[in-house]
Amino acid sequence: METATALSRDELRDHLVRTKIAGDVATSRENNLDHYRSLAVRDPHYMFGLTMEGDWTYRDILALMAKSAGVVADAEHRYGQDTIDPERTIDALDAMGDVIAAALGRPSPRILIATGHPTGLLTTHLALARLVRARGGTLLAPGEQRAFASGGLGRKRRIRYLDDVAMLDDGGGLVHTHDPAPMQAMIAELAGQLPDLVIADHGWAGAAGEAGVQTVGFADSNDPGLFVGEAEGKIAVTVPLDDNVLPRHYDPMNRYLISRVESGL
After folding, report:
1. pTM of whole model > 0.85?
2. Could you say which of 3.40.50.10490, 3.40.190.170, 3.90.79.10, 3.50.50.60 is the CATH number of the domain covering 9-263?
3. Please, which residues have CB within 8 angstroms of residue 152's CB and are 6 or more apart in sequence?
4. pLDDT at 17 (0 to 100)
5. In angstroms, rounded to a whole number, what is the distance separating the alpha carbons of residues 243 and 255?
């Protein structure tokens, strides 16, 4: 469990902007808008295993991302810098912390943690796994070594757990993935004994939310799927942030989130 002093809200806001976790982020406006268009035409790569009940046109998705993540709302801003509002990031961290605290407050909570971003957000998921263990929760590990053919080049990818956090590996390293299939397989293996909570990102989060599991997740400004899932009630909380800055930059955010969870226990 994390023991260092958590930053205040103002200190965290300054840190998020300085490290580009929020504020003027590295993800370009062109990339954001391209992904919003892709989701609007229901490209499975950007749906993260979620079905979308609403029409969700390109302009609807842009408006949602402006509201939920703080990207520039003007549809005529097509090139250059885009933003994530650090206030929205912190508000979502607070909401996520409250959901995690409520789950940990149940008798013998069963929690599943997974990430498709092992080069960035893995450090956050590992910190949360330590917290769950310290607070007496059970971390589930279904589907270990289950193989999938996604990812191209004919390589098999397998579910692998590192300190109870699920990821995919391709035999030589942990991989970035949007694929919902691993979480779908994990949910199926649990045979109706669903977790009390899933903490995840990308397709890991989307597939869990689609299966009716209470889910909280992290998402970049170019990953609108989870924000749509939240708007439709399938994802409890989505935290907007750059999901692939240097791992050490997430540590103050992790401490802030863990402090919020502990304050609710």
Report:
1. yes
2. 3.40.50.10490
3. none
4. 98
5. 17
